Amino acid sequence: MTHIYETIILGGGPAGLSAALYAGRGKLDTLLIEKGSFGGQVATTYEVDNYPGTDIGITGPQLADKMRKQAETFGTKFVKEDIVNVELQDKIKKITTTKGEYLGKTVIIATGASPKMVGFKGEADLRGRGVSYCATCDADFFTDLPIAVIGGGDSAIQEALYLAKFGSKVTIIHRRQGFRAAQYLVDRAKAHEKIDFLLDSVVEEAVETEGLLTGLKIRNVVTGEVTDFPVDGVFVFVGYEPISDLFVGKVKMNDFKEIITDVYMRTDVPGVFAAGDVRETTIRQVVTAAADGAVAAISCEKYLGEEA
Ligand code: NAP
């Protein structure tokens, strides 16, 4: 007979790893399924300076590694598999991966979010050939070359500061004058000798030469003027979208396909919980994702106690 886990966690980012820690420590028989590398988006972040209790200067991959090791200590089983289907309605939930099937009494959806595309002409074609969504992965390719960053949120400004260690110059292209990013980040970028700003500006098109990005066509949204901007790399940080396609029609979502939960991280399906960036929430930080994971695991424990 197939083993029935008490909890199956889908996703190994901060929300999933924190849920694994709490579920394991609560002695729940727990499985965590992750398709890529553990740590989620934090694993592609250069530096995390706002997660309590960690050393200043800790890198995203280091923090992710610490989280995974801590969660493993308490007995959660980890597998690296690609989930292809979920059946959540019945009391026993079924998760199908490319390698097999897993049964669980509760499920925590912690699949996170992935970077959004801007939609300029050539963006998809030049991905990996000058267009990137991950500074820690690709910064090195642009050592001593001019780099552009698109966006005005925390990600754009923080990653621009990181990219300035590599590029000859970093230009932040943002569609308006105001920034969504925290003021201290904006101040640091403004004070940085290698960073400058192109505001009220949007990228319309990528210019390529022999299959590689060599420039951008940028339109000023106030004057309408379009200018050519030579650049070797453009990093896009215009927000994230939830990784939730597998759950459409199976749990309640908002119009952005974010899963709706209550404060206990319960979805509208009994025994199914959601945590972190995949759910409808206002603040998306490593610490809030980790908190969601903890709440979800404790809620699973409570649900299992009530169902027994
Ligand atoms: P975000 O806060 O949603 O900001 C997205 C930025 O991209 C905004 O400035 C937005 O402009 C711009 N944008 C959106 N669509 C665009 C388009 N089609 N063309 C041009 N520009 C576009 O996203 P984020 O910076 O990725 O941050 C996501 C979440 O993670 C936030 O909650 C953030 O606080 C958090 N985060 C925190 C940290 C940290 O604490 N250090 C680091 C990274 C991320 P408008 O402002 O005009 O809408």
Can you lay out the helices and strands and say which pair or pack?
Blueprint: E1 4-10, H1 14-25, E2 30-34, H2 60-73, E3 77-80, E4 83-87, E5 93-97, E6 101-109, E7 113-115, E8 131-132, H3 135-138, E9 146-150, H4 154-163, E10 169-173, H5 183-191, E11 195-198, E12 201-209, E13 212-220, E14 226-230, E15 233-236, E16 240-242, E17 272-274, H6 286-307
Bound molecules: NADP nicotinamide-adenine-dinucleotide phosphate.
NADP nicotinamide-adenine-dinucleotide phosphate binds next to helix 4.
Organism: Proteiniclasticum sediminis
Catalytic activity: [thioredoxin]-dithiol + NADP(+) = [thioredoxin]-disulfide + NADPH + H(+)
Enzyme class: oxidoreductase
Q: Explain this structure to me?
A:
- The chain has two domains: 4-114 and 240-307, FAD/NAD(P)-binding domain (3-Layer(bba) Sandwich), CATH 3.50.50.60; 117-236, FAD/NAD(P)-binding domain.
- It is built from six helices and 17 strands.
- It has helices spanning 14-25, 60-73, 135-138, 154-163, 183-191, 286-307; strands at residues 4-10, 30-34, 77-80, 83-87, 93-97, 101-109, 113-115, 131-132, 146-150, 169-173, 195-198, 201-209, 212-220, 226-230, 233-236, 240-242, 272-274.
- Helix 5 (183-191) links the parallel strand 10 and strand 11 (195-198).
- It binds NADP nicotinamide-adenine-dinucleotide phosphate.
- NADP nicotinamide-adenine-dinucleotide phosphate is lined by residues 50, 118, 150-156, 158, 175-176, 180, 202, 237-240, 283-285.
